[in-house]
Automatic annotation (TrEMBL):
One of its GO terms (molecular function) is structural molecule activity. The keyword Cell membrane applies. This is Claudin. It holds the Pfam family PMP22_Claudin. It is a multi-pass membrane protein. It comes from Scleropages formosus. Claudins function as major constituents of the tight junction complexes that regulate the permeability of epithelia.
């Protein structure tokens, strides 16, 4: 096994784990959107997928979960569903490639190596899927926030929601998921190409006789 392939595998698993932790933090954090007003400068408000919080300058923080699931805005409902799917698929993207690592079992036959490649390939596919599922709700909420912030029909004195830390964490999670998927899939392709090259060598049977003795031997062995 080439050392470069092993590095790709380990980097892919490490980044997929980091991306899953960021996705989990994004889904839990209440700082999706923040709001502060001039009327109450000592307080700010935070909006999340599961609760809303009031933060005071003195360090106090009070959160209240949503009363009803059916009464939530459609964008919050959609973000909940997609983030839960992103966390679930991201977990599969972390767990599936681990048995396919070269260091888990150093000696493997052709069948076992094929199974390892399949596991790593599935892990890369789930990482791609988790990245797409995680980027969709974060980007959608950010788009709605920008549209509502620059809405000219709303008076300027009305406070507006702004980006929270959870959105940036979600963007980082989606990017890391995509990079992890690229690394895992690339490691599988490299192993397959090199395995095919070992099974089908071309230089040996295409090499002509190199010495005069070999050429003369082939000519005189039938005499």
């Amino acid at each position: 096994m080439d050392a470069g392939v092993c590095v790709l595998e380990l980097l892919g698993v490490f980044l997929s784990l980091a991306a899953w932790l960021c996705s989990l933090a994004t889904a839990i954090m209440p700082q999706w959107l923040t709001l502060s007003t001039d009327l109450l400068p000592t307080e700010s408000y935070e909006l999340g997928l599961w609760e809303t919080c009031v933060v005071q300058d003195l360090g106090g923080m009070e959160c209240r979960p949503y009363d009803s699931l059916l009464g939530l805005p459609p964008d919050i409902k959609l973000a909940r569903i997609l983030m839960c799917l992103a966390v679930a698929t991201g977990l599969l993207g972390v767990l599936l490639p681990i048995p396919g690592l070269h260091f888990v079992n150093s000696c493997c036959g052709e069948d076992e190596c094929g199974a390892k490649r399949v596991l790593k390939m599935l892990g890369g596919v789930f990482c791609f899927l988790a990245g797409a599922l995680g980027l969709a709700p974060v980007s959608y909420i950010a788009h709605l926030t920008v549209v509502r912030f620059f809405d000219e029909s709303v008076p300027d004195v009305v406070p507006r929601w702004e980006f929270g830390d959870a959105l940036f964490c979600g963007w980082a999670a989606g990017f890391l998921h995509l990079v992890a998927g690229v690394l895992l899939v690339t490691s599988c392709l490299c192993v397959r190409v090199r395995g095919d090259h070992r099974r089908h060598p071309r230089a040996a049977w295409r090499r002509p006789p190199t010495s005069a003795a070999e050429r003369s031997g082939k000519r005189t062995e039938y005499v």
